[in-house]
Write a structure and sequence with these properties.
Shape of chain A: globular
Radius of gyration of chain B: 21 Å
Largest sheet of chain B: 6 strands, mixed
Shape of chain B: globular
Number of strands of chain A: 5
Order of helices and strands of chain A: EEEEE
Strand content of chain A: over 45%
Radius of gyration of chain A: 12 Å
Oligomer: heterodimer
Order of helices and strands of chain B: HEHHEHHEHEHEHEHEHHEHEHEEHHH
C-alpha cells in the first residue's frame, strides 16, 4: 500500500502514545510495520486502540467491527 | 492481513450479491462519490457482478483529479523558486500542469520532496530555517484537518519559513450542484465514508430531503461497498429518501468534533473551482486571514496564474459521471498513466486510471 498518496487511509493498532512538541503523537503497527503518527485530532487514544490514519494523522478511533465480518 | 482480509471475504460478498440481484426490480443508477470506492468497484468487478441491478456512475471524489490546473501551475511556479523546499504526497508529483510536472522540475534541479505527512514539512522548516518550506496539500474534508493542524502547530512554533498551498474541496455542495442539474441521472448515492469520518452525515440528511434521494455512507473495502450497495438498493426499492450508515466502525453522525474544531480555526469556506467541473459556490476551504502568513499563494505572489485545459481530454464529463473513461478518444492511446492528459489518469483513485488498470481491453462501444 502506498502511503504517499493524498487520500489513502488505513486502520492500525496503537502501540505507543506520548506528548510532544507536535501535540499527542504515537506509534502504530500496520501489518508489522511501525509507523509514527500524530494523535492530536482524536482525544483520549490509548495503547491498544485501533485508529483510522491519513497523512500520518489519526482521524478517528475504529470501534468494533461491522457485523458483516 | 488484519483489518483488510476480513473485509474481503468472498463468501459474504457473494451472499450480498445474491440478495441484491434478487431484490432489485430494475437497474438503479447509483453514484459512488469517492475515487477509492470507484477503484474498489472496478478492481473487484463488483459492478460487473451486479450489472443487472445497478448502473454505477462514477463521481468526482478523486482529490487529485479535481485539483484545478491553475493550482498545479502555481505549485510548479513556487517549486521552481530558488531557496524553496517544495513538499507534497507522491501522487501529486506526476500530475501534469500546463507544461510540465513536479517530477520533471525536480529532475531539472528544483528541491521537490515527497513526504508522508504535512508534519514532515513542518519539521523540514525547523531544520532548515534559511529555506522556505512549502507543503502542497489537496483533498476533501478528510485531508483538511491534518493540513490545518500543521498550520496550527507551525503558528504555535512561530515558524516564519513554512507555508501551505492547499486545494481542499467539500463533497456536499458538489452533490447539491450535481442533483440540481436537470440532466442528472443519479438515483442514489454511496457517500464517502472517510469524509464522513470527519464531517459526520448531518449535511447528507439535508441533501436527501431536499433532492428526494437516498444515501448510504460506506467504507472502501469490497465488503463495505457491496453491503453499502445492498442497503442502498433496499432504500431505492422502498422509495425511501434518507441516510443510512454502513461504515459504523468509523463514522458517527456528528463526525470528529476535535478535527472540525481545528479546521474551523484555520480554514474558512470559499467558492472553489473544480477541475473539469467548474466553479461551485462554497464548495472548498481556504486559509483564514489570521493564517495568511502561512498561505503560499500569497507569500509567493502566484494567485494570478491561470490555465486552460486540454481540448482532447473529457475528464470533466468523466468527473461529472456523464461519460465513462473509455468513451474518450484519447483513452489508452494519447492518454495513459505514463503520459496522462488529464488528472483522472494520473491518480490511482482516478476513474480513468482504474479503467486503464482493469478494463482497458474492453471494447469502447461498451462505454456510455
Amino acid at each position: 500500500m502506498s502511503v504517499l498518496m493524498s487520500d489513502v487511509l488505513f486502520e492500525a493498532h496503537v502501540l505507543f502514545v506520548e506528548d510532544s512538541d507536535d501535540g499527542k503523537t504515537g506509534i502504530v503497527d500496520f501489518q508489522g510495520v511501525r509507523i509514527p503518527i500524530n494523535l492530536s485530532l482524536v482525544p483520549g487514544i490509548r495503547v491498544g486502540d485501533v485508529v483510522l490514519i491519513e497523512g500520518r494523522f489519526a482521524l478517528t478511533r475504529v470501534e468494533g467491527r461491522n457485523e458483516i465480518c | 492481513m488484519k483489518f483488510v482480509d476480513e473485509y474481503r471475504n468472498s463468501s459474504a460478498a457473494k451472499a450480498f450479491a445474491k440478495k441484491i440481484l434478487a431484490t432489485a426490480t430494475r437497474r438503479w443508477r447509483i453514484m459512488e462519490i469517492c475515487g477509492g470506492q470507484t477503484h474498489t468497484l472496478i478492481r473487484y468487478g463488483i459492478d460487473e457482478i451486479l450489472s443487472e441491478a445497478i448502473d454505477p456512475i462514477h463521481g468526482p471524489g478523486c482529490p487529485v483529479c479535481v485539483t484545478p490546473l491553475e493550482k498545479i501551475d502555481r505549485a510548479l511556479a513556487i517549486a521552481s523558486t530558488p531557496g524553496v523546499i517544495f513538499t507534497t504526497f507522491g501522487d501529486m508529483m506526476r500530475v501534469p500542469g500546463s507544461v510540465t510536472d513536479l517530477l520533471q522540475i525536480k529532475a531539472r534541479g528544483a528541491d521537490v520532496r515527497m513526504v508522508y505527512s504535512p508534519m514532515d514539512a513542518v519539521k523540514l522548516a525547523e531544520k532548515y530555517p534559511q529555506k522556505e518550506v512549502v507543503f502542497f496539500g489537496v483533498g476533501f474534508e478528510t485531508t483538511a484537518p491534518a493540513n490545518s493542524m500543521a498550520a496550527w502547530i507551525a503558528a504555535r512554533k512561530r515558524l516564519k519559513n513554512f507555508s501551505l498551498l492547499i486545494s481542499h474541496v467539500c463533497v456536499p455542495p458538489a452533490i447539491d450542484a450535481l442533483m440540481s442539474d436537470p440532466e442528472t441521472e443519479v438515483e442514489g448515492f454511496i457517500a464517502p465514508g472517510h469524509v464522513c469520518t470527519i464531517m459526520g452525515y448531518q449535511e447528507y440528511e439535508d441533501l436527501a430531503q431536499r433532492h428526494r434521494v437516498p444515501f448510504v455512507i460506506a467504507g472502501f473495502e469490497p465488503l463495505d461497498l457491496i453491503q453499502g450497495i445492498w442497503m442502498l438498493v433496499q432504500l431505492l426499492q422502498n422509495d425511501e429518501a434518507r441516510v443510512q450508515n454502513q461504515y459504523v466502525r468509523s463514522v458517527r453522525r456528528e463526525g470528529n468534533l476535535e478535527a472540525k474544531k481545528i479546521m474551523n480555526e484555520v480554514l474558512e469556506i470559499a467558492d472553489m473551482n473544480w477541475r473539469g467541473i467548474g466553479m461551485i459556490p462554497k464548495s472548498g476551504f481556504r486559509l483564514r486571514p489570521e493564517y495568511a502568513a502561512y498561505d503560499a499563494e500569497k507569500k509567493f505572489l502566484v494567485e494570478n496564474i491561470s490555465a486552460e485545459e486540454s481540448s482532447v481530454c473529457i475528464a470533466g464529463a468523466v468527473l461529472q459521471g456523464k461519460k465513462k473513461p473509455h468513451a474518450c478518444a484519447a483513452f489508452g492511446r494519447e492518454c495513459t498513466p505514463e503520459h496522462p492528459l488529464g488528472a483522472p489518469m494520473v491518480s490511482s483513485e482516478g476513474a480513468c486510471a482504474a479503467y486503464y488498470s482493469f478494463r482497458r481491453f474492453e471494447e469502447a462501444s461498451h462505454a456510455v
